[in-house]
Amino acid sequence: MFGKLLTFIIKQLTALGFKEGMLDFLTYLIFSAAVILIGVVLELFVRWVILSIFYHVTNKWKHPIYGFLRNRRLFPWMIHLLSPIIISIASPCFGKAGPWILKGMQIYTIILLVLISKSVFGIADDIYRTHEVSKKRPIKGLLQIIEIFIAIILVTFVIANWIDESPLVLLSGIGAFAAVLSIIFKDTLLGFVAGVQLATNDMVHIGDWIEMPKYSVDGMITDISLISVKVENADNTITTVPAYALVSDSFKNWRGMALSGSRRMQRAVYIDITSIVFCSDEMLDQFSKNENLAAYISGKRKEYEKARARSGTAVRQKFTNIGIFRYYLEKYLAGNPKIREDMTILVRQLPAESHGLPLEISAYSSETDLVPFEKMQAEIFEHIYAIAPSFGLRLFQNPSGHDVYGK
């Protein structure tokens, strides 16, 4: 077809009386314009007519793959192949310039094929993300590795064709070239290896909440690529962390908390040691009015009496207000419907400090989301602060102006 077109152009220009020098120039100029015009018209027809009809029809269909095809621009990149194909077919008609035009079109085609493969792998990743398993096993890094290998192979064939050399010769030289690249792109290669380790060892998933104070990271992972991990922080800022940082540095992953369905509450209140005393009979009678403490006090009294009878000593064991308070807190936590009874509930004393005696409260809440958990924790400790004086205990705090000067 293009040969006939070229012959027709030559005949028409010859009939118009153009001489040989001008004839060749005008022939290839008009022929080039005609070939480019054919490619552009064909590409615009496919884009504006066929592709528009396809988009119009698929807009009514709810399957997500059609949205992925539009967003990744797969078909527009494929349509771009029409022009280099047409020019490549017409290249023999350009005489000595034909081989150079053909090689140029090959380079352009390779670029388009790389972009098409990128779109295809992007669509594959989008489809994979619609499944729940994608959060546990993201494949974006793996697809990027395949993209890189495809790009290297295609570029190698183009260079080999350009210099009229075997691709195997070029591939054999890649080893030496890779040594240089390993120095220049050290961080990228480290990220590549780390990305493989993250995927293989199942260290992080999309949707995991992680903390890395070194990188000011405190948020949810939104994307895992070959060399980086994108995190949306609690303040809605975005932090991109190198993948190798998650392998070389420590970080906290809150995934285990979510999977267990529990969140640990661990905090201490400081008791003024001078307020710790033995309980008088009046205090015990008052405490026994609490249904959680009545059985405990009664049982302990019998236990103490039996121990004294066995030992034969007249020394009487006595209750302490902090011991009863500690037991009260255990029962109070166990009775809270938001505290997991099947997990550890512990109220213990830590070594005394200059600030007093730390009484640590440790339990697991069924509330894992931050806001409900903090609200529940606040309610528990508000109750502890308010009820402690009823047991004759003072909570320690450094002296303030009110303590020194009064009202």
Structure commentary:
This protein is an alpha+beta fold. It has three domains: 183 residues, no CATH class; 69 residues, SH3 type barrels, CATH 2.30.30.60; 143 residues, no CATH class. 60% of the residues lie in helices and 12% in strands. The protein contains 17 helices and eight strands. A five-stranded antiparallel sheet has the order 4-3-2-1-5. A three-stranded antiparallel sheet has the order 6-8-7. Strand 7 and strand 8 form a beta hairpin. Helix 1 crosses helix 2, helix 2 runs antiparallel to helix 5 and helix 8 crosses helix 9. The model has no long low-confidence stretch (mean pLDDT 78).
Strand order of the largest sheet: 4-3-2-1-5
Q: How many helices does DSSP assign?
A: 17
The overall strand count is 8
Residue-averaged pLDDT = 78
Low-pLDDT stretches are: none
Shape: rod-shaped
Report on the biggest sheet: 5 strands, antiparallel
CA gyration radius, whole angstroms: 39 Å
Helix content: 55-70%
Topology as a string of helices (H) and strands (E)? HHHHHHHHHHEEEEHEHEHHHEEHH
In terms of DSSP E residues, the strand content is 5-15%
Which structural class matches the secondary elements? alpha+beta
